[in-house]
Amino acid sequence: MKGLRKFSVLLLSLTVVLTACGSGKNETTNAPASFNNESTTEESAAPASTSTETEKEKEKVEVETTSYKGDGFSLSFPSSWEAAELNIPLIVAAFVDSNPKHGFGDNLNVTVEDSSASAKEAADLTVSQLSSGAGGEAIKDYKKIDYKDHSASGNQTAGVLKAQYNQPQSGATVILTQYFVSTGTKLYTASITFSEESYKNGGEEMVQQIIDSFQVTETAATSTSTDSNTEKATAKTNVADMMSLMLPSLVEGGVINEKTYNYIVNNHKLFPAVTAESKKAASAEVDKAITSRHLFKNINPYLDKMVEVSGYVLEITEEKIDENTTIAEVHILDDNDNSIIGIYLNSTGDILDDDYVTMRGVPTIQYSFENIGGGTTNAVLLTVSTLKKVQ
């Protein structure tokens, strides 16, 4: 069973690996620009008076780009890259080189989230968590290279974080550059990823051009009503967004289904249900006709249904991520010998291994993992509403 990964909404762009994304339809302004990959060494800048200097001088390489306008931001990306469609709400734009020269799909993705963190605070938290293994199987041996503040307009703060990590899936050493722009109420993050070889062969200059083209046009909200609406929207989508972010690190290639995401949002007061009233409402939502046998046969018809399962706890882990967030992972074996994993965004109290518990929640994904016996275990993952020890 895979262990629970540390989570922060700031890590969205890092837990999603775009090396094998499909292409999607891209709406752009089709405004061509160019990347200038030109040597800045003394040899290339000096007159080519000798054969050695001539060999060192690099020709100007122009890469056609396309401008993209999103909600509150704009940027330019290489026209040879393709848009990638990802079912993760906080990723508002993603582009990938579908014909990589060095075995790794260089890529760019942009996230927008409600956050009061400054650019430096966002970068520090990212480094802290990824250095401690929060990137899961997709991001190994993460090391910060440097961080630099960047000029920003108005009251915005901005900064560039550069890091290196290993990507086991492709076997590549990866250079990740993240450009954070904070308005004080929203955090925009452009994450640009190149293989080390590609980065050394024009990628570094391309990264800089993308950063230079990135503009945040939205300003911080100032009205009380706007702030109130933002807080309400965040409260409704918080758990659904967290599950969207966690799935890729819990389940390789895991993506939350739109039906499940919408069900959690529409019933956000039940995830988790911690009051007597919300627990009663969660119980009323349960479809008693759905059993684990139905889920393991075909989970798809039940991705927007509340189900109830019971079993003995094989393994339980719990971690307090920050002052307001606790995440528990509960692996039970039910009466049909089926493995069910529950993600519960609350403390589990006195529940321990071998206790018999009942979980209510919405089926989120069906997957498999290697067990300690060397075989494969099929499992269903639930986003848990209520968790109760029975005996």
**pLDDT average, as an integer?**
80
**Could you say which structural class the secondary elements and strand pairing correspond to?**
alpha+beta
Radius of gyration: 23 Å
For the largest beta sheet, what order do the strands appear in spatially?
1-5-6-7-11-10-9-8
Number of helices: 9
Regions with little confidence, pLDDT below 50 for 5+ residues: 1-60, 220-231
Q: Compute the separation of the termini in Å.
A: 24 Å
Q: Strand-residue fraction?
A: 35-45%
Helix content: 10-25%
| Number of extended strands | 17
Summarize the biggest pleated sheet. 8 strands, antiparallel
Shape: globular
Order of secondary-structure elements: HEEHHEEEEEHEEEEHEHHHHEEEEE
Q: Which features does this protein show?
A:
single chain, 391 residues, alpha+beta, 5-stranded mixed beta barrel, 9 helices, 25% helix, globular, disordered N terminus
Summarize the structure.
Helices cover 25% and strands 37% of the residues. With 391 residues, it is α+β, with helices and mostly antiparallel strands.
Structural account:
The chain is α+β, with helices and mostly antiparallel strands and 391 residues long. Helices cover 25% and strands 37% of the residues. The strands form three sheets. An eight-stranded antiparallel sheet has the order 1-5-6-7-11-10-9-8. Strands 13-14-15-17-16 form a five-stranded mixed barrel. It has a four-stranded antiparallel sheet with strand order 2-3-4-12. Helix 6 (224-250) packs across helix 7 (258-266). It is globular and about 65 Å long.
